[in-house]
Amino acid sequence: MSAAARTAAVTGPTSGIGLEFARQLAGSYDRLVLVARSADRLDELAEELRTTHGTAVEVLVADLAARADVDRVADRLRDPDRPVDLLVNNAGFGLKQPLLANDIEDEQQMLDVLVTAVLRLTHAALGAMVQRGTGAVVNVSSVAGYLPRGTYGAAKAWVTSFSEWADLTYRDSGVRVMALCPGFTRTEFHGRMGVDRSSAPEFLWLEAPDLVRAALRDLDRGRRVSVPGAAYKAIVAGQRYVPRGLLAGFQRLGRR
After folding, report:
1. Which one of 87, 89, 133, 158 has the minimum C-beta count within 10 Å?
2. For the whole model, what pTM was predicted?
């Protein structure tokens, strides 16, 4: 690889928003580092990207709910001999039921993936990027973080707040951090939760390719928070003026 070659790392790239990030970034980055639990799906995606774009692809099989696996990925991100220019922290999952209907270990696993892994991987990437004076991190959060949406929304509120703070703190060092806050998106995410797409109005569903294109444009424009979709921009802008009791109605969307 030449000195000008660029590397992007994506967690959770084998489906949904992460898959779309991998495909779009393969067209503009020389090397991708893909991180997911499924070796078979990682290898299949790596072969697709090598064939379609001629991109060098490195795969890391890791469960981001496991501290040892997270630390192994963090070591890769801070490797000074193989710098990562862009990190997309996308891996995640949700739980359909409210807190007391879930096993606490399932709740803990979700927190580990949505918060702890994001914290540790961002810390590793930022440290290396600040040393070089260049780089960017996109943390995939959610519009749910602006609404009363249970422990998932609470975790995503942390991701958004953390990302905004990190961008404010490290932008002068040449490093960008952006929170991406999508709403309902047509991916495998809700199907895995057992949620029917009819549980939210059709106009609220986003397409992953459009969402990722909007996110990358916002990153290029220097946005600290990216909220794709006109409906969700309006929801985020207006939620601060709506009584929390009325916002509780949003809990019923995407739950059936």
Report:
1. 133
2. 0.88
